[in-house]
Amino acid sequence: MRYFDERDPVIRLKLSLMQRAFPARDVIVFGDMYGVEGAYTERCLSYGADRVVLIDAFETPGWLETRKAHPRIDFYKGDFSDPFFMQSIRQSFSTGIAYDVLLHQAPIISTLHLILDKVRDKFCFAQPMIKEQKFQNTLIYLPGSTDIKELHPNYHRNDVFNAFDPYLVNVSAWIWAMTPSFVISVLKGEGFEVTYQDFVEEVLPNKNWIWWGCVAERRLENHQHWSKVDYRQVFGIKESLFTGSWSFGDDNGFHRVRNAITRIARFVSKKKS
User: Fold this and answer.
1) What is the distance between the alpha carbons of residues 133 and 56, in angstroms, rounded to a whole number?
2) How much is the pTM?
3) What are residue 127's DSSP bridge partners?
4) DSSP for residue 268
5) Upper half-sphere CA count for residue 242 (Cβ side, 13 Å)
6) For the residues of 111-174, what is the DSSP string, one character each?
7) Residues 93-118: pLDDT tens digits?
8) Partners of 130 in the beta sheet?
9) Cβ neighbour number for residue 216 with a 10 Å cutoff
10) Euclidean distance between CA atoms 155 and 205, whole angstroms
């Protein structure tokens, strides 16, 4: 069932972030199906977007009706944490939106990189976060943790807030607890600068959790990013480890192998004739 009550403080937060990111000609939205059935995707049209693409792994009957009613909306069914699926999407978009998705992603850094790789200008992000800790950039792996009282978002509703099961490590679970400073730093490494941020308190029963969101803008291309730097460059290796470790890596070895293959080919050819 679709829930989209604009009196809800979390929904108001997310909409306020979108309003700061518009106008936008084309928009890509990640994971907007569960609970809201593409409501933020649809809202992009009323904010002036010419085209909106939603990526999610499943769809609902209600969403199918929304797509029929709005031909400017496209839907790519797939996993946005899958690099092969994401590589199949050739275009980029002026604005990207990712709400309530990153805490469920096991490959968290890689997933955020794949998402941002499709965004040219502005990025809206919001989800449940933990308040800043003693150390900045805190990221806590929840499955298997025994600090349930301090970290569980809603201990009395474990049927909805699946967490702390060491074997339940998939998108149905709360895998990560992270601070806003962690997200800000990761965005900066991806070439994005946070230009606006806001949060809502007392939404979840555990007071250590807040709903935090931001708008980030692409500022530069980071050529030192892990996706761009070759391991040989990092370790100062001038020559391939593979070719330097085997006898055919040198010129004499290469010629010996080539001559052997030539002789074998001639022998086979004679046998056939």
Assistant:
1) 32
2) 0.84
3) 212
4) H
5) 0
6) HHHHHHTTEEEEEEEEEEEEPP-SSSS-EEE-TT-S-HHHH-S-GGGTTTS-B--TT--STTSB
7) 999 999 999 999 999 999 999 999 99
8) 209
9) 26
10) 8
Contacts of 19 (CB under 8 A, 6+ apart): 47
Q: What is the pLDDT of residues 167-186, one digit of tens each?
A: 999 998 999 999 999 999 99
Q: For Cα atoms 52, 55, 60, give the angle at the middle one, nearest 5 degrees.
A: 100
> Both tokens of residue 137?
């950039």
Outline where DSSP puts E strands in 87-118.
Answer: 93-99
Which homologous superfamily is 9-218 in?
Vaccinia Virus protein VP39 (3.40.50.150)
E strand map for the chain: 26-30, 51-56, 73-77, 93-99, 119-130, 139-141, 176-178, 192-200, 209-218
